[in-house]
């Protein structure tokens, strides 16, 4: 294994990710024979098959999985070295990779856009994803910084809060519960209820709310899209619990009504998260400093009309 190259590892990882040589060739802008040659040379160096070609899709063998782990480790170490060298040079450019949880897509792009305007030399790669994908990004260490509502417990991370994230129960305007005061949590299950999918941060909060009040919770519908849930609620199909940040405009314009429910709003925080062992690049440090310095006021100003419309100003929302 003395003659293994980074190029071979990179191509092998692409073959596994794309589940085939033709897909890897397209992804890497190479010819298929060139991809096949590099993998063949890698297998020759290892003196053992690295890919199982017996099925319809190519999969790594046990030895191939070991090589794949090594390939990912090499890329992480080289990226860390590049970031360290950039820091020593004092560079402010470079590539910044950010993952944003889907619930934060309603405000995060405007923040990121402002950062990019001030740091035009920074190249950005952005992924808006669900929690499962977000945790995978952090496990694989393939993002610099994540914006999310609940730091993962299964990975050692460094998490810094930067803004409140209130969650409320919503209904269509004119819903029979809209004029009620201090609705009991138990009473919510008298209505059709739409919940996010298991594993999402919002679903965990929903389950926790009912568990706190010793109520057996079984949602009428489960949806993985905040937008779809909002449309269903506005159509009068059901009620739901969502982050206020996903529906600021609809609440402010009274297209959605926030119900007055005991123990609500549930106020969580938005966090900047990165692996505890990660050395942040100068671009990532600049982004972190920008968010911690300015995001709180930005989010508060953006959500002010919705908070006022929902009459939540004096109810459990933290003061800045």
Structure write-up:
The structure is a single chain. With 320 residues, the protein is of the alpha/beta class. The protein is built from 10 helices and 11 strands. The protein has helices spanning 6-18, 21-28, 32-46, 62-89, 108-118, 131-140, 201-212, 226-234, 248-252, 282-309, and strands at residues 51-52, 59-60, 94-101, 122-129, 145-148, 157-171, 193-196, 221-223, 239-243, 257-258, 266-275. The strands form 2 sheets. Strands 3, 4, 5, 6, 7, 8, 9, 10 and 11 form a 9-stranded mixed β-sheet that branches. A two-stranded antiparallel sheet has the order 1-2. Strand 1 (51-52) and strand 2 (59-60) form a beta hairpin. Helix 1 (6-18) crosses helix 2 (21-28), helix 1 packs across helix 3 (32-46) and helix 2 packs across helix 3 (32-46). The N and C termini lie far apart (58 Å).
**Percent of residues in beta strands?**
15-25%
Query: What is the multimeric organization of the chains shown?
Result: single chain
Helical fraction equals 40-55%
- Mean pLDDT, all residues: 87
Low-confidence stretches: none
**Cα distance spanning the termini:** 58 Å
Radius of gyration: 24 Å
């Amino acid at each position: 294994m003395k003659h293994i190259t980074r190029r071979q590892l990179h191509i092998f990882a692409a073959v596994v990710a794309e589940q085939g040589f033709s897909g890897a060739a397209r992804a890497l802008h190479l010819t298929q024979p060139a991809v096949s040659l590099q993998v063949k040379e890698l297998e020759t160096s290892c003196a053992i098959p690295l890919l199982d070609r017996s099925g319809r899709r190519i999969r790594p063998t046990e030895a191939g999985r070991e090589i794949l782990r090594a390939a990912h480790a090499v890329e992480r170490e080289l990226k860390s070295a590049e970031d360290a060298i950039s820091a020593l040079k004092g560079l402010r450019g470079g590539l910044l990779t950010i993952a944003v949880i889907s619930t934060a897509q309603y405000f995060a792009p405007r923040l990121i856009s402002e950062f990019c305007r001030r740091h035009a030399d920074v190249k950005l790669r952005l992924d808006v994803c669900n929690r499962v994908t977000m945790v995978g990004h952090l496990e694989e260490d393939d993002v610099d910084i994540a914006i999310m509502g609940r730091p993962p417990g299964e990975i050692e991370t460094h998490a810094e809060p930067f803004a409140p994230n209130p969650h409320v129960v919503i209904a269509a305007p004119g819903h029979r519960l809209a004029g009620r005061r201090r609705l009991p949590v138990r009473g919510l299950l008298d209505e059709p209820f739409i919940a996010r999918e298991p594993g999402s941060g919002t679903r965990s909060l929903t389950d926790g709310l009912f568990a706190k009040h010793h109520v057996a919770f079984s949602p009428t519908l489960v949806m993985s899209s905040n937008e779809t849930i909002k449309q269903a609620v506005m159509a009068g199909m059901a009620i739901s619990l969502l982050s206020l940040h996903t529906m600021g405009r609809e609440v402010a314009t009274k297209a959605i009504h926030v119900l007055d429910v005991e123990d609500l709003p549930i106020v969580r925080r938005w966090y900047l998260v990165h692996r505890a062992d990660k050395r942040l690049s100068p671009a990532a440090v600049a982004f972190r400093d920008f968010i911690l310095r300015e995001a709180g006021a930005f989010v508060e100003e953006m959500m002010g009309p919705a908070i006022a419309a929902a009459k939540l100003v004096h109810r459990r929302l933290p003061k800045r």
